[in-house]
Write a structure and sequence with these properties.
Class_I_gatase-like, alpha/beta, two-stranded antiparallel sheet, DJ-1/PfpI, single chain, glutamine amidotransferase, about 15% strand, Rossmann fold, globular, 13 strands, about 260 residues
């Protein structure tokens, strides 16, 4: 089996803005990071990391809620150990800076697959340049996505990480993922996160992945909460939420094996 190089694009953001004012503390969702890439690592593929500013990611405390793990404490503890040991050894705490990678064409060309994990954090610095300041999309993320799209290389994303596709450019007045089938965190999940007591984050985000992707021309498919949902279309493969993370890893591994 050919050993592929997989670039994992992590957010280093720790806050998202709220429409009502103020911010909410966020990070990367543990399961949406570990579950998709663990099978790739164990299959012998090479993993490297990049972030917008060259800083490491923070794990969102809410991702330790057992409801994200099918109520399995064993699964969650395994993921924590994998993050603290294996992923640290692979360099997740000291990723490349995206602008440096974009300037190194030879290194950029060496990657076969791009993966963007979820959690609210990517909304702030992967989709946007800095959502705490303005709504400008991150053009460097757009350049990275265009590179993989234009070279017919696999791009994978999950949950709020899928929103990063919104930063991709237009070519001939059409978004590069126009008409693609895809998925991301559902509006039902956003409602629970924002409006249900105990879960509430203290406000509402100014925008949402489903709405962003649909406005641009994506065909977004979401399922009921707690059901896995992975959508595969051309070079793009996306997962809905933590319940989809394990299946995304399995299907991404198969996609890599069969990709030409």
């Amino acid at each position: 089996m050919r050993r592929n190089k997989i670039l994992v694009y992590t957010s280093s953001a720790t806050k998202i803005p709220l429409k009502e004012g103020g911010t909410h503390n966020v990070g990367i969702f543990l399961g949406e990071l570990v579950d998709p890439i663990e099978p790739l690592i164990e299959a012998g593929h090479e993993i490297e990391f990049v972030s917008p500013d060259g800083k490491g990611c923070i794990i969102d405390e809410k991702s330790y809620n057992l409801s994200n793990w099918g109520l399995s404490k064993k699964r969650m503890e395994h993921a924590k150990r994998y993050f603290d040991t294996k992923l640290q050894d692979l360099g997740i705490g000291s990723p490349q800076k995206l602008s440096d990678l974009l300037n190194d064409k030879e290194k950029l060309n060496s990657y076969d697959v791009l993966f963007i994990p979820g959690g609210h954090a990517p909304m702030t610095d992967v989709l946007h340049t800095d959502w705490l300041v303005n709504n400008n999309y991150n053009k460097e993320t757009g350049k990275l996505l265009f590179h993989f799209h234009n070279n017919n290389k696999i791009t994978a994303a999950i949950c709020h990480g899928s929103a990063a596709l919104g930063s991709a450019p237009f070519v001939n007045d059409k978004w590069i993922y126009d008409g693609y089938n895809m998925t991301c965190v559902s509006m039902a999940a956003e409602y629970i996160t924002e409006d249900i007591p105990f879960f509430g984050i203290g406000g509402h985000m100014p925008d949402y992945p489903v709405k962003i992707l649909e406005r641009l021309g994506g065909i977004v498919h979401t399922k009921m909460l707690s059901l896995s949902n992975v959508i595969n279309d051309r070079e793009l493969i996306t997962g809905q939420d933590p319940y989809s993370a394990k299946e995304l890893g399995e299907k991404l591994l198969d996609k890599i094996k069969n990709w030409k």
